[in-house]
């Protein structure tokens, strides 16, 4: 699933080039961190646009256009002469292209699967760490051989594969449902308290989730780790993540786990946050490798579960609109998280603060989601018992 593959892989792997970009453009960590933030902000902020386009034109066409934009942005970026141009090309254009690939991919998953949807989500999400495992050392290799410009150019060529993947997305039932969708973006989904809880939790999550991976390579290089070994750290995260996501999908599909999906997701968030906090003082390479193993596990759990939880809340019919609105809110968080972490590094020259900050945000989100879900679900179940004859369904029962 190419759309989901590029979501994390491209954004994180581009961090391999940060050191060279800082030298060429005479800028700091926070300036280069903005590139990843803008890609993420476009990926998330374009959510409503992608929702409208999918509802109007269908998944296949939107993915084809997205592939061309993602590729074109990276190719043009290879010719840029300052950091602002890089923000517009690798950031805005490529980010928009990835958004137009990412959302249709998730929507098609919801169309293809129902009973085994958690496993399908886990398997599809596993494509992201595969891409990350390959692209991080490849990026370092390209950087050493062709410089960052050549690396960007070749990456742009690789992203054309998004078009190939979009071409084989068979519409299936999408055509039958399209005429019945009168609204291109349905705001009525926001009436669901479960969705509001999810949006708040995900906003806090996104503030810190990507921060350690974006700054990890620079952190390792600053500790004297050789470039290739530093890039390999992302491959360790990706390799562990490859197995974590499908495994988590299998567990999430178990009949006694699936109705309690928000709690399982909360556990994944706590695990990820505690990994960050406990690894804040790891400065040697062995410590960083251990961090990457545990981070890959917890990051994979979050990646496998995040959209499955959302599908469970709003169902198939509301998923496209809900996803667009969720991503829009998350766009604000990704514009705050990585650059603020980069600012802390520039100012205090201390990476410990970043791990504590990111970990604290993930732990806060996990606790909030668990508590809010507990009180909301209990109230919802009570209401369901009272209105059983109307056929109401509790929020987290299988859809």
Automatic annotation (TrEMBL):
It is a multi-pass membrane protein. It catalyses: 3-methyl-2-oxobutanoate(out) + H(+)(out) = 3-methyl-2-oxobutanoate(in) + H(+)(in); 4-methyl-2-oxopentanoate(out) + H(+)(out) = 4-methyl-2-oxopentanoate(in) + H(+)(in). The keyword Membrane applies. Pfam families: MFS_1. It is found in: Basolateral cell membrane. Residues 1-383 form the Major facilitator superfamily (MFS) profile domain. One of its GO terms (cellular component) is basolateral plasma membrane. InterPro entries: MFS, MFS_dom, MFS_trans_sf, Proton-linked_MCT. Keywords: Cell membrane, Membrane, Symport, Transmembrane, Transmembrane helix, Transport. PROSITE patterns: MFS. GO terms for molecular function: monocarboxylic acid transmembrane transporter activity; symporter activity. The chain crosses the membrane at residues 33-55, 62-80, 86-107, 119-138, 150-169, 189-211, 231-254, 261-282, 288-310, 322-341, 353-377. Its main location: membrane. Belongs to the major facilitator superfamily. Monocarboxylate porter (TC 2.A.1.13) family. This is Solute carrier family 16 member 8. It comes from Cyprinus carpio carpio.
